[in-house]
Amino acid sequence: MRPILRLLDDTLIDRILAEARDILATLGVEIHNPGILALLADHGARVDREKCRAFLPGELVDNALKTSPRSFKLYDVYGRETHDLGGHNVYFTPGSAAINVLDLGTSAIRPATTADYIRYAKLVEQLPHISSQATAMVPSDVPPNIQDSYRLFLSLLHGRKPVVTGTFTIDAFQVMKDLQVVVRGSAAELKGKPLTVFSCCPTAPLKWSDVTSQNVVDCARHSIPVEFISMPLAGFVAPVTLVGSLVQHTAETLSGIVIAQLTNPGTPMLYGGSPAIFDVRYETTPMGAVETMMIDCAYNEIGKRLGLPTQAYIALSDGKQFDAQDGLETGMGATLAALSGINNISGPGMLDFESCFSLEKLVLDNEICGMTLRLIAGIEPREDFPARPRFEELLASKHLLISKHTRRHLKQEHYLPGRVIDRANRGRWLAEGGLSLHRRAQQEVERLIAAHQPPELSPETRSELRKLMEREARRYGMEHLPHM
Amino acid sequence: MADLLADITAYLLTGDDEQVSSLTRQALAAGHKPKDILDRGLLAGMAVVGERFKAHEMYLPDVLMAAQAMNAGMEHLKPLLVRDGVPSLGKVVLGTVQGDLHDIGKNLVAVMLKGAGFEVLDLGSDVSPARFVEAARQHGAPVIGMSALLTTTMPMMGAVVRLVKESGLAGQIKTIVGGAPVTEKFAREIGADAHGFDAANAVERVRALIGR
Ligand code: B12
After folding, report:
1. Strand, coil or helix: what is B50?
2. What is the CA(B149)–ligand 1 centre distance, in A?
3. For residue B43, which of A200, A268, A400, B195 sits 20 to 30 Å off, Cα-Cα?
């Protein structure tokens, strides 16, 4: 049985949906984008252009939901299927867009660079339970205007896995789309085999900025999958109650769905988010709070009730160093998310309120993900009934270590974690250096990066990618890209 | 007599705006100078609030409640302070820099500054350098506070600092910067006068900037 966690019952979900729809119809949503306001007006929304407000009738929401795909697939740089986002399928993605990196040697928190990004991209390739890349860090050694596209460029050059990303401006979309077209060979190929997912954020409460709403439209036009990242902050720019924040999340996300589906019916989307409670003591948005995780899992249930694939920023920590708080918060988040069947679980590797990335943590988190994936595979009988023959064998030979049954099922039944997780007895642990978790993780990072094989993109593709990126860099005053 | 002012402080600490309002009126009727009520009643309370907040004895909502109570008292004092020619603590022009829409942190800073008795001109988000400088000049504000949450928009802070200099206002207008990615080091690099890491810290830094 696939274990599934439920936090809401259907009656409560339907009530939340009804309240959210009422809010969209009566209070409306503020959209700072004249093109989108016009589009909505054309399709029956009442629009107050002066106040940039659109009131979305229930029918508009219903129609958008009708054309929303129930699932969609992602493909790696070679065009091989890697994700089937739908149902209760679960995939892990690193956290996105950290400004800083936790230095592997000194444990200092410092701005990320191209070199850090490349090491990250190589590492992700080697981690079996991390299914996609995310543009996890923002390299500080290139001009700000290309910091978003440059990350994608590096990921496509050094990794194979699909990329969860996003733009920081309207302008950057073009080159970020073009880079993908180069990898796929044509715009039509890209449409058929999506390579990336773009995060697009409404602004709490009930608002869309020009940039982020335009991103939705641009992605939809090119059938690039969108993940909506609504961020109600409970008790601050959203009601303090978890239910109240869920109503807001639902309304904001439905408004995004309407924009995407009106622009291009059938646009693939993830019903996602990065909500948090607001910690009134520290003025922060803790991603590791249990209530934050509860909001995540609960809106995922609402998304599922609507039949949509889901996403959340949940398996991450607010700690500042590689320490036990990271394991606690990431482990708890990953477990809850997987049990809830959140399809794209974002977060591994991330610290400090989504602002610092740690390679050591990513290696550890990969194990958390591995264990979690085992958990949701559940408990199934495997040649277990009738039970008597197995026990006759056991009683006769005193052990089952080399029994055929054991050999057939060991790997399926027991997840054996990598070297970061210590399962040695004390004598062996000492004999192998008596290493702390941190040291083991550091060694794993170095070992895995050294073993990385670059993806076999054709030389033409590589040089096309490079040309595109160099042109973009020159537009913003950088003659030569940083040395790789 | 002095008890009235102590009561104002005490009720302000509990965030009771009605009591603070009525006690302020009573204090005026009893002949207290508006400036005394402000300094020894309201601002004395807000100073305690600041301390307790730092010591984790009060949380943000408590601070906002206290600020609201302070404003209730100020309603009565403001016209009189203006009449007496008592200068305000100072004006701060505040905004999130151009291209950036993250305004949550900036809004908190605004609330805390107001609570501490500063006049805040909040320009909102996506504010161009010209608007920052123009607003400060027009309103005679000695401080410009800028917020940025994106690495891509942080450079706009430098642009504001440069524009202040180019406009020949370097001595008159001080700049303070903040937001999650902004560091003390970055502030120094762009030549800003100060950096604050949270809203309470922003109040301290602004106080230091204008020497109060
Ligand atoms: C909430 C949020 C949003 C909300 C903002 C809502 C709003 N009205 O502000 C929304 C959803 C709109 C949003 C949008 C985007 N966001 Co955002 N967002 C955040 C998040 C999660 C929290 C920010 C926050 O409000 N924190 C709580 C407040 C209270 O803290 P604070 O802002 O740091 O402020 C405190 C101090 O810094 C200080 N302070 C702040 N200002 C000032 C000013 C002065 C003068 C002083 C003295 C002090 C001071 O005092 C405050 C109180 O303690 C951060 C992650 C993070 N850890 O910061 C990402 C984050 C900043 N966002 C990020 C990104 C990428 C984006 C988008 C580009 C995403 C997209 N592709 O659409 C867009 C950008 C749109 C735009 N052009 O601005 C990245 C930035 C990466 C980078 N390279 O810089 C971050 C780091 C998340 C991540 N890792 O991906 N975001």
Report:
1. helix
2. 4
3. B195
